[in-house]
Design brief:
The protein is α/β, with parallel strands linked by helices and 417 residues long. Helix content is 45%, strand content 14%. It has helices at 8-16, 25-34, 52-66, 97-114, 130-133, 138-144, 151-156, 158-165, 172-175, 177-192, 204-218, 255-263, 270-277, 282-289, 295-312, 314-328, 353-359, 366-374, and strands at residues 21-22, 38-44, 70-76, 125-128, 196-200, 223-227, 240-241, 244-245, 339-342, 351-352, 378-380, 383-384, 391-392, 401-405, 409-415. Strand 2 (38-44), helix 3 and strand 3 (70-76) form a beta-alpha-beta unit. Helix 10 (177-192) crosses helix 11. The N and C termini lie far apart (62 Å). ATP binds at residue 240.
Length: 417
C-alpha cells in the first residue's frame, strides 16, 4: 500500500487493518476531505441475528461515523428473496416475507449499539431495498438496467467462476443477484447521494458492478472499498466455533458466552483483533498483542471486555469477567453462566447426563457427548465425568448442576421451582 491518505477515515482503515482494496484511493480520499460521504453496507436478512462475521464491517461503519461521515445500513428485504450466490457451493433456501421481516427486526437490534441514528447530516439511516426492488417492472428493468450488463464479464467474477468450475449449478434466480445489488448502489446514489459501498472482499465483483452501472446510467462517480475476509491464525473462518455461530443478539447468545469467545482468542490473533474490534489506540493494541507467556491472557481479557462493552454494555462485560474469575479461579459456578432450566416433567424417571450435555449445547449430539465423556473431556460439578450411562433424578437438582466440556465451556442446569 503506497498511497498515503489525507482523510481520517482511510487513514484509520489502513492503520487498523480494515482495508483489503479500494476502487480509487485518491478519488475517495479527496471526496472524504471535501465533505460528508454517505456510505453503505448491505445485510441480507438470512438469520434472526447478525453474527461475529458481520462485526468487522459494523466497526467500519462506526469508524466512518466517528470520522464525520454518514453510515447507511441497507437491509436486504428485496435481495434476500433471491439469495447471494457469492462463493457458495449451493443455493440458499428461499425465505418468505414474514420470516424476512422478522429477521430484519432481529438484526436491527445490534446496529444502534454501534451507530447513532437520526436526522442529522452524519446520523446513520437504516433502509430496506424492498422499497425499490419489490415494485420493479420486469420488462422495463431488463430494458433500462439489464442492457448494461455483460454476461461474459459476470461469468468471469471469481464468486461465480468458482461455482461453475466445480460444475455446481447456478440458477438464473441467483445470477440476477449481482444485477440487483448493483441496482441498489445506483438507487442509493440517486435517492440519498451515497458515494461509497463497503463490504468483504468476496463482494468486490458485486461492488464494481454497482460502480459501473451508476456511471453508465446517471454518469455519477462512486467508490468501493473492501475489507479482508478474516480467518483466525489456525485457519478457521472468523466467527465459527465448536458451538456454532457467535450471534450478536443477547437472546441468542449470552453476553458471558460472547465474552468467553473473545477471551479464547489465540495468542497470535490478539493484537490484530484488538485493532479491528476495539477502539483502543493502535500503539496500545500493538503493545498488548506483543505480550508473551501468561501476560497475553491479560490482553485477551482486555479484548473480551472492550468488545463485549461495545455490544452489551460495560456492566455486562464486567459481569462476564467476574463470572469467568469465579468459574476458573475459584471453581465456583458463577451466576452469569449459560443456564438451562428443566421442568419436573423432563426429569420424571431420571435424565441422562448425555441428554444434559446436548440440552446445554456443550455437545451437538448424543454421540458427541459420549465421545466427550470417553475422552475425559466432560465434568460434572468440576469432577471428571466417566460414566456415559449416568442418570440423574430430581434429588440431584437440589442445587444447580455445573456441566463442563473441556476447560473453557461451562453451563448450569437447574430445576424449575
Amino acid at each position: 500500500m503506497t498511497y498515503h491518505p489525507k482523510s481520517e477515515f482511510i487513514s484509520i482503515m489502513i492503520s487498523r487493518g480494515f482495508l483489503a482494496d479500494c476502487t480509487d484511493y485518491q478519488g475517495l480520499d479527496e471526496a472524504m476531505q471535501a465533505g460528508v460521504v454517505p456510505s453503505y453496507i448491505g445485510y441480507d436478512a438470512t438469520a434472526q441475528s447478525l453474527h461475529v462475521g458481520h462485526l468487522l464491517n459494523i466497526m467500519m461503519l462506526r469508524w466512518l461515523q466517528k470520522s464525520g461521515h454518514k453510515p447507511i445500513t441497507l437491509m436486504g428485504g428485496g435481495t434476500t428473496k433471491v439469495g447471494d450466490p457469492s462463493f457458495r457451493s449451493d443455493e440458499r433456501p428461499l425465505l418468505g416475507p414474514e420470516q424476512i421481516d422478522a429477521n430484519i427486526r432481529g438484526m436491527g437490534q445490534v446496529f444502534s449499539r454501534y451507530l447513532s441514528y437520526g436526522e442529522g447530516e452524519t446520523d446513520a439511516i437504516m433502509l430496506n431495498n424492498a422499497e425499490w426492488l419489490d415494485d420493479l417492472n420486469y420488462l422495463e428493468f431488463l430494458r433500462d438496467i439489464g442492457r448494461h450488463f455483460s454476461v461474459n464479464r459476470m461469468l468471469s467474477f471469481e464468486s461465480v467462476k468458482s461455482r461453475l468450475d466445480r460444475e455446481q449449478s447456478l440458477s438464473f434466480l441467483e445470477f440476477n443477484y449481482m444485477i440487483l445489488q448493483a441496482y441498489d448502489f445506483l438507487e442509493l446514489n440517486r435517492r440519498y447521494g451515497c458515494l461509497l459501498q463497503m463490504g468483504g472482499s468476496d463482494q468486490w465483483g458485486n461492488i464494481v458492478n454497482g460502480i459501473d452501472l451508476t456511471r453508465r446510467v446517471i454518469d455519477h462517480e462512486v467508490y468501493g472499498l473492501t475489507s479482508p475476509l478474516l480467518t483466525t491464525s489456525d485457519g478457521r473462518k472468523m466467527g465459527k466455533s465448536q458451538g456454532g455461530a457467535i450471534w450478536l443478539n443477547g437472546d441468542m447468545l449470552s453476553p458471558y458466552e460472547f465474552w468467553q469467545f473473545w477471551r479464547n482468542t489465540t495468542d497470535a490473533d490478539t493484537g490484530r483483533f484488538l485493532k479491528l474490534y476495539t477502539e483502543l489506540p493502535v500503539e496500545e493494541c500493538d503493545r498488548l498483542g506483543a505480550l508473551a507467556g501468561s501476560e497475553i491472557n491479560e490482553a485477551k481479557i482486555i479484548l473480551a471486555n472492550e468488545v463485549t462493552a461495545l455490544l452489551h454494555g460495560a456492566e455486562a462485560a464486567q459481569a462476564a469477567q467476574d463470572t469467568a474469575r469465579e468459574v476458573f479461579e475459584k471453581g465456583g459456578v458463577g451466576d452469569d453462566l449459560p443456564t438451562v432450566t428443566l421442568s419436573p416433567a423432563e426429569i420424571e424417571g431420571g435424565i441422562s447426563v448425555v441428554q444434559l450435555l446436548v440440552k446445554t449445547g456443550l455437545a451437538k449430539s448424543g454421540k458427541e457427548a459420549k465421545r466427550l465423556i470417553s475422552e475425559n473431556g466432560a465434568r460434572l460439578d468440576d469432577a471428571p465425568l466417566t460414566d456415559a450411562g449416568l442418570m440423574l433424578d430430581s434429588g440431584a437438582f437440589a442445587a444447580p448442576i455445573k456441566l463442563s466440556a473441556g476447560k473453557k465451556r461451562h453451563a448450569l442446569v437447574k430445576l424449575d421451582s
